[in-house]
Amino acid sequence: MLKDKTILLGVSGGIAAYKAVELLRLYVKAGAAVHVIMTKGACEFVTPLTFQTLSGHPVHTELFNLMQEMEIGHIALADRADLVVVAPATANVIGKLAGGIADDLLTTTLMATKAPVLLVPAMNVNMYENPIYRRNEQSLRDCGYHILDPICGFLACGWEGKGKLPDPAVIVEESRRLLAPQDFAGESLLVTAGPTREELDPVRFLSNHSSGKMGYAIARAARLRGAQVVLVSGPTALPVPCGVERVDVVSARDMETAVLGRFAAATVVIKAAAVADYRPAERAGEKIKKNGQGGMVLELEQNPDILRRLGEVKERQLLVGFAAETADLLGNARRKLEEKGLDLIVANDVTMPGAGFDSDTNIVRLLYRDGRMEELPQLDKDEVAWQLIDRIVALRRGVIPSR
Ligand code: PMT
Question: What pTM does this model have?
Answer without folding.
Answer: 0.94
